[in-house]
C-alpha cells in the first residue's frame, strides 16, 4: 500500500507494528511478524532512510517511531514533487518528439491539395483549366448547380474545348430533365459532341481535367465555400473510378430512364431508399434535386402502388416486398 512512498511490504509491516508497540525492539518485531532478523533489520534501515524511525533515548538499540502525520505526509509530499517533476520531464520530451516528428514530416514528399475559397475564385480557376485541358473533362453536376448566367458564360469555353478535340462527359441529376435551361444546355453539348447522362443522386459536385487534376467542394453541402483542387495521382485515380462507375449505370440523355422488373425508375428507387432511411419530403427533395411538392406527388403514387396509407410506410413496405 505504501510502495508509492518508497516502502517495501516488509518495511510497511515493521512500521505498522512499531506504531502499535513503540517500545518493541528487533527481537520483539522478529517474533511478532515471523520475519527473519536480517529482513527486519533491512526494513528498519529503510525506515530510518525514509525518516520514519530514528534512534531513541533508551540506549544504543532503542528506536523511536515517527508518527504518520509527520513522517508519511512528508514522504507523500516528496513523492508528489517527484511525480510533478517527472511529468514536466515527460512534457518536455513530448515537445522534443513533436519537433523531431515535424522536421521529419517536413521532408516527406507531399501531394498537392490547394484550397480555393469563394465561388468567384473557383470560377476563375475553372476558366484557366478549361483553356488548358487537352484530352478529357469529366463532371458531376447537381440539378440546380448552374444558373442560366453561368451556363451562358460557359458555352464559349465548352465549345472551344470540344472543337479542340477534348472529350467531355457530364453526369447530371435526373431532375434536370424538368429544367428547360439545363436540358437545352445538355442538348446543345450533345450536338457539339459532348456526352451527358443522368442519375437520381449525384454523389458530389466534381470536375476532373485530363485525369490529372480534380476539383471537389470544400464542404459537400456548402459549395459556396469554395473548392479543393487535388493533384494527387492516387486520389484523382480514385475519383475517376467513381465517375466511371456512376457513368456505367447512368441513363444517356435523350433516353427514358430504364425501369426495373417492378416498374420502378431509378429516381423512384432512390426516393424509396431515402424514405426508408427516414428522410422527410424536404430532405429527400434536396438529395434528388426535386421540390417537396414533386416528392409528395411521387410518394403518393408509390404509396398507392404499394397499398399503404402513408409515406412512413412506403419505404419499409418496399423493402418487405423486395422492391429495393
From TrEMBL:
Signal peptide: none
Boundaries of every HTH luxR-type domain copy: 257-322
Pfam families, alphabetized: GerE
Name of the protein described by the UniProt record: HTH luxR-type domain-containing protein
